[in-house]
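Below is how a single chain appears once it has passed through the pipeline. First comes the sequence as given, then the structure the pipeline wrote out for it. We keep one example in the README because the format questions we get most often are answered faster by looking than by reading.
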Amino acid sequence: MLLLDDEGLSTNHYLIVFSNLVQLFAQVEQEMVSLLPTQSNMPLTRAPQNNVERVQYYNDLEIEADPTLPTDPGAEWPSKGQLSFEDVQLRYRPDLPLVLKGLTFDINPGEKVGIIGRTGAGKSSIAQALFRTVELCGGRIVIDGRDLRGIGLDTVSYGRLETIDRLLK
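Resulting structure:
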């Protein structure tokens, strides 16, 4: 806190104000350093990012599909439970290798299916493809005759499809 007298601020007071401003700017600069990749093909590194660059980074992210579409099926979908994975290919980012490579299988209505495998075998990737948390880069998933790409994300994700995780005794 600075107090002014009749003569105004002395040189010493100006130096104190200047020193405090420099310290404040340095603190703000430190807070603007964040963990973001410097390039899409590099691991996370400490990279200075100001707020404008951070906003631009998020602005450039790929836009996800619409939550609902006019062509979404009615509340009765899915009614049978026929599921087909047809040559499904999935990768988590364009610069990464495929984690699902031409996966093809059918599950008939009423069948009970368990997916087991070692770490990294693709179990979670199958679920992410099914619920469209990650979009396919090839192939298609069909439920009761409807390709999931033609259905809104909310229609697929909320209340229509479900899983039972790790039901072991």
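Helices lie at 11-31, 51-59, 123-130, 153-157.

See the next section for the split statistics.
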